[in-house]
Design a protein that fits this description.
7-stranded parallel beta sheet, 259 residues, alpha/beta, globular, Rossmann fold, single chain
Length: 259
């Protein structure tokens, strides 16, 4: 198993992406520590993992509360004897479907603030523990608007671009200490963004299925990444098989973006 004996913290684990990553990590043998703001959704993911024989614990943690994040990570590191992987899949609470010049400053800046703040705080909290053990992987996820000019996505595109820049800066500083930083970039899994798809479909005056078809047509593989795809790649990037990779973006866009 790719992640056997690895200890992994996942923020936003009750969400679609966080849950998919958690399940993939569990299948590969990781010991999981799942966090989020809503225990009910976390516990649902944890039940699935436990039923499949995985080892998992849950905790209610607000990733915007620096003291809470610091204390949680200290507690996990003490309980587990260290932390090998930190994956932040916190939702950005972005507003889409409105032209930029018609948006309020609050709606535009909110996802940028959420993204940069939670990723900064969670990375800052776990990095000293990884540095102490001389190894670790800090992971985050963005989407293709980080690189493509896509209309009506509001501050989401800026937030994604900021995270990719942050991941490079963290990698430059933490690499000499043995800590890797990896960003995943997805083209969006339809099963995780139904509301966003409906907003854009309405804006284009097409059905959701027609809008999804147009997104698939933008890719080289003529499909979009599934949540399972995201989980599989996350597990690989977190594993020692990707030990030579840092400061990079793993491209899960199915060829929507070609590097």
């Amino acid at each position: 198993m790719l992640l056997e004996h690895k200890r992994a913290v996942i923020y936003g684990a009750g969400g679609a992406i966080g849950g998919a990553v958690a399940r993939a990590f569990a299948r590969e043998g990781a010991r999981l520590f799942l966090t989020g703001r809503t225990l009910a959704t976390l516990d649902a993911v944890a039940r699935d993992i436990s039923a499949a024989g995985g080892t998992v614990e849950t905790a209610q943690v607000d990733a915007l509360d620096e003291p809470s994040v610091e204390q949680y990570i200290a507690d996990v590191a003490k309980t587990a004897g260290g932390i090998d992987v930190s994956f932040n899949a916190i939702g950005l609470e972005d507003v889409q479907g409105t032209p930029l010049i018609e948006m309020s400053l609050e709606d535009f800046s909110h996802p940028i603030t959420i993204a940069t703040s939670t990723q900064f705080l969670t990375a800052k909290a776990v990095a000293p523990h990884m540095i102490k053990q001389g190894s670790g992987v800090i992971m985050m996820i963005t989407a293709t608007p980080a690189r493509l000019g896509i209309p009506l996505v509001g501050g989401f595109s800026v937030a994604c671009a900021a995270l990719e820049s942050l991941s490079r800066s963290l990698a430059a500083e933490l690499g000499p200490k043995g800590v890797r930083v990896i960003c995943l970039r997805s083209a969006g899994s339809p099963e995780s963004i139904a509301k966003v798809l409906d907003v854009h479909a309405a804006g284009h005056r097409v059905t959701r299925e027609e809008f999804i078809a147009s997104l698939k047509d933008m890719t080289l593989l003529k499909r979009l990444p599934s949540l399972a795809d995201v989980g599989h790649v996350a597990a690989l990037m977190a594993s020692d098989y990707a030990g030579s990779m840092t400061g990079t973006v793993a491209n899960l866009s199915c060829g929507q973006i070609v590097d």
